[in-house]
Amino acid sequence: MRSWRWAAIVLAATALEVARPAEPSAARKKANRCYGVRVESADSTINRRGRTTVFSASESKDLRLVVSLPEELSSLPVHVKLFTPRGRLYQVLQATADAESTSRAARSRGRSARGARVLAAQVPVAGTHITTFALFGEWRAEVYLDGSDAPCTRPLEFVIEP
Amino acid sequence: MGRTRRTAFVLFALAISTASVRAGYAPGCTVALEILGAVAHEANAVTIQPDGKIVVAGYADLGLGAGRDFLVARFHPDLSLDTSFNGTGYRVDDFPYVRDDEAFAVVVQFDQKIVVGGYTKQTPAKHYFAFARYTRDGSLDASFGAGGFRAIDFPSSSSDQLRGMAIQPDGKILGAGFWTQSGNPRLGVVRLLKNGDLDDLSAGFPPEFDVDGAAQPTIAGSAFSLGTDVVVQPDGKIVVSGEAGFATSDFIAVRLNPNGSLDNTFSTNGWVSTDIGSNTSDSASSLVLQSDEKIVLAGTAGTDVAVVRYDKDGNIDATFGSGGKVVHNFGGSDTGNALALDSGGNLLVAGTSSLATANFAFARFLLNGTNNLSQTDDVSGFEDRGFGIAVTRVGKILVVGSSQGPATPKTTLALYLPDGSQDCGPPVYPVDVFTAGSSGDSTNGGQVMLNWLNPSYGPYDRTVIRRATVSCPATHNDGVPVATQSNGLGAPGGFVDTVPLGSTYHYAAFVLDSLSQPSTRVCRSATPFDRNAGAVKVEWLYDTSSSALTTPGLRVNVSLNESVVYTVANDLVHAIRGGLAASGGGSWPPGWRPFLIGGPVQGRPPVVPLPAPWSTRAVLLGSQDGRAYAVNAFTGALIWRSAVLGTNVQAALAAVLTALGGTADLVFVATRNPGQPNGLYALDATDGAVVWYFDNAPTRGIGEIVSGASVDYAAHRVYFTSALGTSGKTTWCLDYSGTPPAMCSGWTAFGVRPGGGGDIEASPILYQNLLFVSDTSPGYLYAVTPADGLDSLVFNLADGGAKGFVFPQFGTTKLFASTSTSTWSVDYSSGFPDWTGSCVATPSTPTAVRGTDWVFVGSGEGKLFQYSASSGGGGCPASRSACIGNCVSTIVGAPAYDVLRTMLYAGTDEGKIYGVRAPFQP
User: Fold this and answer.
1) Shortest CB distance from B600 goes to which of A77, A84, A91?
2) Taking CB atoms and an 8 Å limit, are B406 and A11 in contact across chains?
3) Which of A33, A110, A107 lies closest to A72 in space, CA to CA?
């Protein structure tokens, strides 16, 4: 067992390593791009109006915002800012690996030449401010990587109807 | 968490028994703890507290032949020592036995107590499983074991050693490791109750834990076996990683049922072994459970790091690496000692890679096992060994272990960015929170109520607030000086700035160190207004500078002449003093520190008296991170955080409390799991541990629970509603007087209301011995008889279901509800609606005030409106309408009425709370 291995101590007389200058993180963050973000619901059939996805609040208890990004960026914290039809920030959600997105990514492995990873954030609808205050109309979701100030992909717009 | 390994040291014993500390290397990136006089100390394990603080555990040898003792230390997220822990940031504890003690695992309980596990040695050949528990301030917890210590002796075993620990959702403590049989180690697991006693069940069947609190599963065909780590699945089953000796030693994963017996649905006999390399000695040191319930083990195979993944049934997962296995070479002789998951579900492995000297080593593996980060770090230039790994709240990779300078090994922590580089953080940290509220009058001018929370760590000399009228001051020398305070790290600050009315003011907060080096700025804006202008008087507004708000909760203490409003915005819990601005209204209460929780909150937070040992008021919160929280209503400090109970906790929490005349101290938490089973949890109000869970098993099928429960203290019942589609039965009644609870026996359908059905998103309300529930579609309000669950009255609201809940006017038979477009008054004694009002669009849940004629609603058009409870009022006069926000597009949530201050508090989708003098008209 590894626990019982005894290691020899080699007191090499090398200089103490101190902190290395860090590359400015902002410079790195600018280069990070996500592939995209989509919205889905397990409760209702997705309707499309032109390029916009439309959901009925009476049919969709919950929505999922699914972020697709290069696999090598999947270790970075991913946050989704969700804005109401009036343009107000509604919630900031952390997109994480979950069972559904993880299994989907596993199934799609080999089909994705780009090595995409999907993370997800849940948006409850039924019984929330969305239905209580009739926040119906066109919503916008913006995705941010690693605390960057700039979204990592084009914003997603979708419609929630009564 | 960290795990296995051992290193021998030949060191000097210094005749110094006291300890002092300094930080070495590069603060913010890499830090070595120094305990003066210690001949050696190392961190074997790490965990992150909910507040982001870092706890490590291992051993320290203070010399003089004392041998090794438990070491536990706590650090701030920037790796500076947290001196609020034991006064020094660390402590060294010697078990009652005279020989070595060493910790290999550390966990934080829901109530923030810290449990450390390892072994204590009585004689050279006799080890015990050893546990020590500490309070959050670093004291030994006298309520655990004997004086905070607990040692477990496996019968007929000479050496018992703990290597991994986990906390079950019910608060029981699991320890995994090994005991010995005829000189050979055997995998063993113990379970302790919350007080440190062995969990000696009496369930009547032959589970392992039933006998003596210990499970000693047999790994058939193995010469020996060891447990190294343990996790608890959501279904309560226990998974242990380790090593077993066959032809060579192999990885093993063992799954136990909650009672400790082998789970025969896992692989063939409850365990699975994997031979990484046919001629190598393989040892799994750590495991994690993925969100899809796959089980991942990491450890060492020969001189390489190895990772293995199994599906939830114990089959090797062929989608991972090569045939479910990944072998990784850092370039030296490598050991894999610890495993963690990042937020993206990737696997992080930490260990040691040795060439000329040993170095920290860590690697990341993607979903399919592909390696995309592999790094070694020669931290000290000498011997550096990584034993633990964790991911911080901001996504940094934390590796802990030891580094050995020219003299002694020292506990060492190193932080890395996700790309493997180091970012030591800013030289000075900015304020954690900064808010600006507004008020004013024509006589004295405008008032801006500024509040801020200093950073908890980093250099600090003072906080400086500057003001400008055009834009936020760019530097701490720009604009006009407003306030300079030196109240210390982690302290809240406040100042009321008096300015002329008619302008918008921009404020910047800076933290300065002793050399006047500033932090980055944090900006806020405020536009003071005349609180006496207009027909309806808006006294103050408090701006969270954040997102849509939780419906405000309220704490009123008449004897202290105090009222406080609570809300959550973008995961930050705010408290605001009620009352007039001249009396502090619109500012933080003294001593309040906003608390960051793990996700958004929407349910109105109840403020309740918790039992001993707290004996204080707590704000109860259910969050979209799937947890329940209790936060001290006076200080903002976290009292407890539950385990993850579901995908989401949407509903406001409810409670039965002895301080309020109840027979138990339980907090009820409902889950909102899309597409998964749902249920109602009862948590121990003292520590957030699960007492029972009801999911209507085996039938299940409760549906998502969107709204809060209602508690009948006299009948020991809790009622809740759910959303289960048009055919579902969605009103539930449980008798909580026993554990587990019973479905209400008097109900004709055994605790499920047979009438109505379909989705219910509103809370049930028990009032005057009737249970009022409202379905979502078509929108009926039912009065249910609690004795039998049958509907006694049905009202057709004909405008969708009631939002939130119906609000009774206490002392009368009147109920008030808001539907899609209208507000309703219903008198259930007559069976018909009294009146219907449509004075505001998309009205909120109404608030009726006892003993008055006032009913208040918010709206989707920036208004608060006051109806007459008796008549609805004549028309919709502007004199009963308070315009807040921009009075057009602002959405105003359900208000809370303050009987002490005669004020109304309402939040908006702009992230602001308004304090409004009420009533608008007598």
Assistant:
1) A91
2) yes
3) A33
State residue A25 phi and psi, 5-degree precision. -65, -30
**Cα–Cα distances in angstroms (integers) from residue B488 to residues A149, B39, B459, B516, B596, in the given order:** 30, 34, 10, 15, 20
Find residue B827's DSSP bridge partners. Answer: B814, B832
Residues B68, B121 contacting (CB under 8 angstroms): no
| C-beta separation of A56 from B356 below 8 A | no
By the 8 A CB rule, do B569 and B549 touch?
Answer: yes
Please name the residue that has the structure tokens 């626990």.
A3
The number of helix segments (H) and strand segments (E) in chain A equals: 3, 9
pLDDT of residue B688: 98
B4 chain-A contacts, CB cut-off 8 A: 1-3
Q: Which band of pLDDT confidence, cut at 50, 70 and 90, is reported for residue B28?
A: low
Instruction: Supply the DSSP symbol for B204.
Output: S
Residue B147 phi/psi, 5-degree rounding, is 65, 25
pLDDT, tens only, B687-703: 999 999 999 888 778 88
Pairing relationship of beta strands A156-161 and A52-56 according to DSSP bridges? parallel
Residue B659 burial by CB count (10 A; 0-12/13-18/19+): exposed, middle or buried? Answer: middle
Asked if pLDDT for residue B471 goes beyond 60, the answer is yes
Q: How far apart are CA B90 and CA B71, in angstroms?
A: 7
Interface-testing mutation among B296, B335, B891, B892, with chain A (most A C-beta atoms within 10 A): B891
Q: Which residue has the higher pLDDT, B498 or B208?
A: B498
Q: In B, which residues are within 8 Å of A10 by CB distance? A: 356-358, 382-383
In single-letter form, the type of residue at position B698 comes to: P
Contacts of A75 in chain B (CB under 8 A): 342, 344, 346, 364, 372-373, 395, 418
Percentages of chain B per state (helix, strand, coil), in multiples of 5: 0, 45, 55
Of A5, A42, A89, the CB nearest to B6: A5
β-strands B710-712, B40-48 pairing:
unpaired
B910 touches chain A (CB under 8 A): yes
Closest Cβ opposite residue A122 in set B10, B418, B674: B674
What are the pLDDT digits (tens) for B263-320? 999 998 899 999 998 778 999 999 999 999 999 999 999 999 999 999 999 999 999 9
The mean-pLDDT minimum among A29-33, B543-547, B650-654, B842-846 falls in: A29-33
Other CB atoms within 10 Å distance of the CB of residue B142: 11
Interface contact A2-B723, CB threshold 8 A: no
Distance of CA A4 to the CA centre of its chain: 42
Sequence-distant (6+) residues with CB within 8 A of B519 are: B426, B428, B429, B430, B431, B455, B510, B511, B512
Q: Which chain B residues are Cβ-neighbours of A92 within 8 angstroms?
A: 547, 570-571, 600
3-state secondary structure of B581: helix
B216 pLDDT band, cuts 50/70/90, is: confident
b/e sequence B201-232, b meaning 16+ C-beta within 10 Å: beeeeebbbbeebbbbbebeebebbbbbbbbb
Q: Which amino acid, B466?
A: R
Task: Record the pTM.
Answer: 0.92
Nearest Cα to B582, choosing from B522, B553, B539, B549?
B539
The C-alpha atoms of residue B902 and residue B899 are separated, in whole angstroms, by 5
